[in-house]
Amino acid sequence: MLPGRSLFICDTHVNENPNAQEIAEMTLLAAEQVKRFGSHPKVALLSHSNFGSSSSESARKMSVAAGLIGAMSAGELEVDGEMHGDSALNEAIRREANPDSPLKGEANLLIMPNIDAANISYNLIKMTGGEGVTIGPILLGVDKPVHVLTSTTTVRRLVNMTALAVVESTER
Length: 172
Prior knowledge:
Keywords: Acyltransferase, Oxidoreductase, Transferase. The chain is of the alpha/beta class. It is built from 6 helices and 4 strands, in the order βαβαβααβαα. Strands 1-4-2-3 form a 4-stranded parallel beta sheet, sandwiched between helices. Helix 1 packs across helix 2.
């Protein structure tokens, strides 16, 4: 939870180095979760590469995943990538690199290429922008509400996660 906005980061704790197909599937699950929080998902697939500026394996993986997500969501999901973090959060920067980007405004669902990038980003944002307040990590794709509590879990996060689990259990 950031002042004035919600930012969602996909897979901070489970899949170490997902392939493009796995990233696409996780993204669709995460987008549905964003909707449950009352937000319209705006998805950015992040990379050290900005719209083809690198041909590294990681950059290609994120670019392929973006294409898969577009196909799997039948174009219903606002998604673009691969891109830098500043491109994801600033439309003017993104438009300069990719004038035809289908993503409008600021991304609110950040998809990382691996667990290292996601977990580092999650913890940096939590401490620098979120005043240490988070809801999550939320495990997706499971039959019952299950969530991750780490050794740095605060009482506030424990209360948030308990409330979320109760709400989720009544929805199923």
